[in-house]
Amino acid sequence: MNNAGFGVCGRFDETDIKEEVGMIQLHAIALVELTKFFVRDMLDRKKGKILNIASLAAFQPMPFFNVYAATKAFVLSFSESLASELQGTGVTVSVFCPGAFQSGFQQRARLENVPIYQGKLPTAEEIAEIGYREMKKNKRVIIPEWKFKILLFIARFLPRNVVTQTNKSLMTKRNS
Ligand SMILES: NC(=O)c1ccc[n+]([C@@H]2O[C@H](COP(=O)([O-])OP(=O)(O)OC[C@H]3O[C@@H](n4cnc5c(N)ncnc54)[C@H](OP(=O)(O)O)[C@@H]3O)[C@@H](O)[C@H]2O)c1
């Protein structure tokens, strides 16, 4: 499972490029390297399950969370392509795309006062359980909550700039 990750929230001209480069390194480069490292053994054994953790942010642009969303889009695309490539080998690839949930992520990403992270969020345990269960069923793209499945479906029919603008307002920090 490739789970390690963190976010950086803020205006692009104000965030720290070192953090963003580190995020690209972790979410994209390390994930590809680790997958390459393990997949060969799995293929030799004709058995294995790879679970990559992306995010709901993988599906669309997220202003003020732009590099994070772009790296998760990479994880989603890479995982779906690889899942197709490995079809019939006994090795499966699942990509998990949760929305906001409670963890250490919010504080590290400086997401306080961001609307998407307000209200009661599912716990990390609740979300992880769904991911594990669906991976066992060899589900390729796992979206753990029905409300997000419906929203993603609706978003397909909307102009991309409308979706981006909606995300912008959901990611704009409110005064506490
Ligand atoms: N929480 C959310 O709302 C949310 C939503 C969608 C997707 N996700 C994704 O879910 C995954 C897990 O995040 P989480 O919410 O469980 O956050 P978390 O509680 O902060 O856990 C993040 C994990 O990533 C590790 N990590 C962070 N930076 C690292 C680095 N540079 N090198 C190696 N390991 C590093 C951390 O290790 P240490 O503890 O050793 O630092 C920790 O184990 C991430 O990929 C995140 O993008 C989270």
Apparent shape: globular
Percent of residues in beta strands? 5-15%
Q: Which fold name corresponds to the CATH topology?
A: Rossmann fold
Our count of helices gives 6
**Sheet with the most strands?**
3 strands, parallel
H/E element order: HEHEHHEHH
Biggest β-sheet: strands ordered side by side in the sheet: 1-2-3
Structural class: mainly alpha
Lay out the secondary structure:
Blueprint: H1 17-45, E1 48-53, H2 66-85, E2 91-96, H3 105-109, H4 124-136, E3 141-142, H5 146-155, H6 160-171
Parallel strand pairs: 1-2, 2-3
Helix pairs in contact: 1-2
The structure holds NADP nicotinamide-adenine-dinucleotide phosphate.
Overview of the molecule:
Keywords: Oxidoreductase. This is Short-chain dehydrogenase/reductase SDR. InterPro entries: NAD(P)-bd_dom_sf, Sc_DH/Rdtase_CS, SDR_fam. One of its GO terms (molecular function) is oxidoreductase activity. Belongs to the short-chain dehydrogenases/reductases (SDR) family. With about 180 residues, the protein is mainly α. The termini are far apart. Strands 1-2-3 form a 3-stranded parallel beta sheet, with helices on both faces. Helix 1 runs parallel beside helix 2 (about 65-85). It has a single domain, classed as Rossmann fold, CATH 3.40.50. Helices cover about 50% and strands about 10% of the residues. NADP nicotinamide-adenine-dinucleotide phosphate (NAP) binds near residues 53 and 98.
Features:
176 residues, mainly alpha, Rossmann fold, three-stranded parallel sheet, 6 helices, 3 strands, 8% strand, globular, binds NADP nicotinamide-adenine-dinucleotide phosphate
